[in-house]
Design goal:
Layout (H helix, E strand, L loop, with lengths): L2 H24 L18 E3 L3 H18 L7 H6 L13 E2 L33 E3 L3 E5 L4 E6 L6 E7 L5 E7 L2 E6 L22 E8 L6 E10 L1 E8 L2 E8 L7 H7 L3 H13 L9 E6 L2 E6 L6 E4 L7 E8 L8 E6 L4 E4 L3 E7 L16 E8 L7 E9 L8 E4 L2 E7 L14 E9 L2 E11 L4 E8 L2 E7 L2 E8 L7 E9 L1 E9 L2 E9 L5 E10 L7 E9 L13 E3 L4 E8 L9 E10 L3 E8 L4 E4 L11 E2 L3 E7 L2 E6 L2 E6 L5 E6 L5 E2 L14
Helix pairs in contact: 4-5
Length: 691
């Protein structure tokens, strides 16, 4: 998780906790015992006839949301004013010189001349912190900094550094000469008001879209800026069309005086909540948007009342919005679709976009009592037409999803892999199992076609990959079963083969010739993880998958285990590259931080070809620090890609070019920025996230 992601996650957690203190602890007015677990949405969908209809609907049903999910408490005024940021230049965009003569070069061919972002589906680009077209490279280097490099010939050259109008730039999408940056709004999201009885402002966040013209490397320009309320769920690019998925919570007006009254008793809290609901209007529930132009801005709802659809059965009152943007025409959405439902995991094919929402349940801290089986609702949007997005229907599957790879569409059929026990459950769940379910769109619904269960009894899913008519599912608790699921007939999915080995794979990648590469962790016979493990599987015979070769790094971990964009597979050289942390001894000796390159072939198995490191990060250590505190630390490599005949690795220090033939040094482009402040963390104390 990046620092920006951590900040966003912490912010969201704090807001939810504040809301739950008021809403969940005392309970909403009129709540019944059966409100604690609202029914999952049905497949059907209705639309509101008017804003009055929407307001009446949410006023009647919001107490159920408060009991089951919690809600963010903010002001209607904040919803109308918070999105946006200080403008950058005039409406024609800033002119930030980045050098170069602006001469055009012949376009490079992806997969031949350079590698693209490691996306789940061909033809559907995913945002990332590094983008290239084989001639130019763009790197988001923390906070608001965009690094622009010339990589023609495979040797990086830093052209310039561009400061973006945001404190946190998260990810980017590149389409031709248009670079879209997804960022936080910055100072447009304000904190608590200081007036004695002013409305309490708990901002609902926001995502800022920044469109840059990068055609001329001597003149990068800000073309447009647009801010959507809520939180970014995902974004996907097909051609020049971007679809941005956001989730906005309602903004309900509670004044500080209201909270003082509410704190006196349970009855007072219920009356306060009831009054806030009854005085709310549709404006409190609609997501809003702001377009920034020059020194001014235009403000309005992101979607109209009658354009919001709702499941026939209650599914919460948050607003899930898919905004469709044509990058050739600016950032104002050319289409927007909203559902009154919570957001979740997003998957996209070239013709459809799916959002999966898991039902919430009361958290339990008794490890001897497994949680109830959860269901997941999946919404489908048709994206086959450029610059248009149409909601088509919803369906339901048993269990919870791991990540976007848990879904895949082929021939109009959605395949979904789920586990009965929720991902956060760490106790025993001996009866839990995993499923692969197939669904198809019929008459405005996603209807189940077939399902196969019994995968990994007492275990949960750690990795999924659907490739053609086959699905590969990894479950784990003590051993790693790799299941091969035949989906050729979606009405009767069947398990064809199973392979049991120690450890698990957390990411699976096809590498051609009937082979599958897995990156995960080795484990003891008792299921205790022991370090990064790369496995090469022969899946040419679905009935009898085998492991040809493992490669182990004791004690190590890799970002590629949970962030597939950190994984590189370069087919022309049959080469995989992953970032790794290998711990050293108590003094830090023998450790390694960098990128590991390994070939993977049927004939030779997995063979390590070499390792790449970047210059160490220097630290300004406080004068009162102990003498044994080191003043430097190895630098983590976050991304790897190929341009021409060179492997390019990216870190916070810069971009390094290494020859593909022997991984020898071919060039270096450092990022200026000075020394880091504080003392480094010893390598042997840095562990992988809890899974």
């Amino acid at each position: 998780m990046t620092p920006v992601s951590r900040i966003t996650a912490v912010r969201a957690s704090v807001l939810a906790a504040l809301a739950c203190l008021l809403l969940l602890a005392v309970g909403p007015p009129g709540a019944r015992a059966d409100d604690a677990a609202p029914p999952a949405p049905a497949s059907g969908l209705d639309r509101f006839d008017s804003c009055a209809d929407l307001a009446a609907y949410v006023r009647a049903r919001a107490p159920r949301l408060a009991r089951a999910f919690g809600a963010n408490v903010a002001t209607a005024e904040d919803a109308a004013t918070s999105p946006g940021a200080m403008p950058v230049g005039g409406g024609d965009g800033d002119r930030t010189a980045i050098g170069g003569d602006g001469s055009a070069a012949a376009p490079a061919t992806p997969g031949v001349d350079y590698s693209e972002t490691n996306n789940q589906e061909a033809g559907v680009d995913e945002p990332d912190v590094v983008k290239t077209d084989g001639r130019r490279m763009f790197v988001l280097d923390g906070g608001s900094t965009l690094r622009v490099l010339d990589v023609t010939g495979g040797v990086p050259k830093l052209i310039d550094t561009v400061e973006l109008p945001t404190p946190y730039a998260m990810e980017m999408l590149l389409s031709g000469d248009r670079l879209l940056v997804l960022a936080e709004p910055g100072d447009s999201v304000r904190g608590l008001r200081s007036a004695p009885d002013a409305p309490l402002n708990l901002p609902t966040g926001g995502v800022q879209l920044i469109l840059l013209d990068v055609a001329d490397p001597a003149n990068v320009r800000v073309l447009d800026r647009y801010v959507l309320s809520g939180w970014l769920q995902a974004a996907r690019l097909t051609g020049t069309t971007v679809r941005v998925v956001t989730q906005a919570a309602p903004n309900l007006a509670l004044r500080k005086a209201d909270l003082r009254v509410a704190s006196k008793s349970r009855a007072a809290a219920r009356r306060t909540w009831r009054k806030a609901l009854q005085r709310s209007t549709a404006a409190n529930w609609l997501p809003v948007a702001r377009r920034i132009a020059g020194k001014g801005a235009t403000l309005g709802p992101a979607v109209g009342c009658t354009a919001i659809a709702r499941p026939q059965q209650y599914s919460g009152v948050g607003t899930l919005t898919v905004s469709t943007v044509d990058l050739t025409a600016g950032l104002a959405p050319v289409d927007a679709d909203s559902i009154m439902s919570d957001g979740g995991i997003v998957y996209a094919s070239t013709t459809g976009l799916y959002v999966a929402t898991q039902r919430s349940v009361e958290l339990r801290f008794d490890e001897d009592t497994p949680p109830p089986v959860l269901d997941t609702v999946v919404h489908r949007f048709d994206t086959a037409t450029p610059n248009a997005t149409d909601y088509r229907g919803s369906g339901q599957v048993r269990g919870s999803l791991l990540n976007q790879f848990s879904m895949s569409e082929l021939g109009g059929v959605l395949r979904v892999a789920t586990t009965e026990a929720p991902l956060w459950w760490q106790g025993d769940a001996p009866d839990s199992e995993s499923f692969v379910t197939t669904l198809t769109e019929r008459d405005g619904r996603l209807d189940e076609l077939g399902r196969v269960g019994g995968l990994g009894k007492g275990e949960r899913i750690y990795a999924v990959r659907f490739l053609g008519n086959l699905g590969y599912v990894v479950t784990f608790r003590q051993v790693d079963p790799l299941y091969v699921v035949d989906l050729a007939d979606p009405t009767t999915p069947t398990v064809r083969g199973e392979l049991k080995i120690r450890g698990y794979s957390a990411y699976l990648h096809p590498v051609g010739d009937g082979l599958l590469l897995g990156v995960g962790q080795d484990a003891s016979d008792e299921g205790r993880v022991e370090g990064t493990q790369i496995s090469l599987f022969d899946v040419s015979n679905p009935d009898a998958p085998t492991r040809l070769s493992p490669h182990r790094l004791p004690g190590a971990w890799s970002d590629a285990e949970w962030q597939h964009h950190a994984f590189l597979w370069w087919q022309p050289a049959a080469l995989a590259v992953i970032p790794v942390w290998v711990p050293g001894d108590e003094q830090g000796r023998g450790g390694f931080v960098g990128a590991l390159a390994a070939s993977a072939t049927r004939a030779a198995g997995i063979r390590e070809e070499g390792r790449v490191t970047h210059p160490v990060t220097e630290y300004v250590v406080p004068p009162d620090a102990p003498e044994e505190v080191p003043t430097s630390q190895p630098t983590a490599i976050v991304r790897s890609l190929v341009v021409g005949d060179n492997l390019l690795t990216v870190s916070a220090k810069g971009v390094k070019a290494s020859r593909l033939t022997d991984l020898g040094d071919a060039g270096w482009a450092g990022f200026p920025g000075g020394e880091a402040v504080g003392a480094p963390m010893p390598i042997d104390t840095i562990g992988s996230p809890v899974r």
